[in-house]
Amino acid sequence: MVKFSRTAHVFALARDKGSGEVVSETNLRYSLGDGDRENLRRGVERVLRILAGAGAEEIGTHHREGRVLNVKRASEEEFERFVREESSRPLRNLSSPICSAHQMGSCRMGVGPEGSAVDPRGETWEVEGLFVADSSVFPTALGVNPMVTVMAIAYCTAQSIVEVLGGKKFMSE
């Protein structure tokens, strides 16, 4: 804790190719493919190199073993071995979970109801007057933080809602 104010926690973000399903509220299934594992491995390797290159005195990962390397005292050979070993550890042995953020594509936008849940304006095919304006309307995950894209989708969908409400009354007063 003494070093916490001078600690940087960095993570590797990978655009996955795997898929999963929600079976129930407490049962989620997800499979990482070999390519996903390799992307995460390379991400850990690059994060360690970036931290060292930025002047970190010590680097480490969140693996259960909690290994740390003093970069300032390590030889180039020791540094390379540490990076190779830490970035090659199995993902199952992490003390922090692999997680998903910014879920996207669960209510896809499209030009017809066959492969999508909402039309290009964000209105659902099944319920008139019900609009969706978040990252679930994306056709697939972006692989990057979707903040600006979500803002654009929300703005455009809001314009569609204004147009629809200008001509229709959905609820009785």
How would you describe the overall organization of this protein?
GO terms for molecular function: long-chain-alcohol oxidase activity. Belongs to the GMC oxidoreductase family. Its EC number is 1.1.3.20. Keywords: FAD, Flavoprotein, Oxidoreductase. With 173 residues, the chain is an alpha+beta fold. The chain contains three helices and four strands. It has helices at residues 34-53, 76-87, 147-167, and strands spanning 19-24, 27-31, 58-60, 68-70. The chain has a two-stranded antiparallel sheet with strand order 1-2. It has a two-stranded antiparallel ribbon with strand order 3-4. The chain is elongated. The termini are far apart.
Q: Average the pLDDT over all residues and give the rounded result.
A: 87
Structural class: alpha+beta
Which series of helices and strands comes N to C? EEHEEHH
Oligomer: single chain
Short note summarizing the structure:
Belongs to the GMC oxidoreductase family. The protein is an alpha+beta fold and 173 residues long.
